[in-house]
Amino acid sequence: MAADIRVKVCGLSTPQDVDCVARAGAAYAGFVFFEKSPRNVSYETAATLAAAAPVGLCKVALTVNAGDAELDALTEAVPLDMLQLHGKETPQRVAEVKARYGLPVMKAIGVADAADLAQIDIYSDVADQLLIDAKPPKGADLPGGNGLAFDWRLLAGRKYWRKPWMLAGGLTPDNVAEAIRMTGARQVDVSSGVESAPGVKDADLIRAFVEHTTG
Ligand SMILES: O=C(O)c1ccccc1N[C@@H]1O[C@H](COP(=O)(O)O)[C@@H](O)[C@H]1O
């Protein structure tokens, strides 16, 4: 397996999480701003965590259908390197957010079957990166972070898209190597798969996850 897989660990909420993620060699640290999530953090907490992150660790804010007022307050309070839009934001909204905040934008695309892959091309016109995640189950409280994988065979043979992309959804230390092998992903994103309980990151699982991407 290639040794240069870039890892994002999402849903960090303590200084120990950030330290562990950085030391393990992850490229991105994700903070969740979505009240229904067990990983939700206040702007104050996120600002402290982001300020303590080492240079080079990309600090990503995950939001869901956030309006300008929410994003204004977030970007004012927290030093960020990237915005992750994980709701039903339209391509036009992605372009607006990118222009208004001057930060790279990663748009999450939910995939359940081959028809969903068309969204990847559509959002490639406006987003800087794409996060290809499992579609949430109907009626789920969370649009992501559900620990669900989609059928990775849908991405087999489609390693190259027009924009950089990350594989997400139900990844764990045990399955990430196989997911990379099947999809050709060069970037992977994990949240619940490195937790001991919802919202509680586990340092051993984080280290194991990163190690298993470099097989
Ligand atoms: O993690 C969350 O709580 C969350 C809430 C709302 C939207 C997205 C969320 N997480 C993102 O979903 C992917 C996949 O999660 P998992 O690994 O299957 O648990 C995660 O990497 C986050 O980017």
From TrEMBL:
Catalysed reactions, as listed in the record: N-(5-phospho-beta-D-ribosyl)anthranilate = 1-(2-carboxyphenylamino)-1-deoxy-D-ribulose 5-phosphate
Alphabetically ordered keywords of this record: Amino-acid biosynthesis, Aromatic amino acid biosynthesis, Isomerase, Tryptophan biosynthesis
UniProt-listed InterPro entries: Aldolase_TIM, PRAI_dom, RibuloseP-bd_barrel, TrpF_fam
GO molecular function, one term: phosphoribosylanthranilate isomerase activity
Keyword Protein biosynthesis appears in the UniProt entry: no
TM regions (residue ranges): none
Pathway noted in the entry: Amino-acid biosynthesis; L-tryptophan biosynthesis; L-tryptophan from chorismate: step 3/5
Annotated family: Belongs to the TrpF family.
Protein name in UniProt: N-(5'-phosphoribosyl)anthranilate isomerase
Organism expressing this protein natively: Phaeobacter gallaeciensis
Lineage: Bacteria, Pseudomonadati, Pseudomonadota, Alphaproteobacteria, Rhodobacterales
Gene name for this UniProt entry: trpF
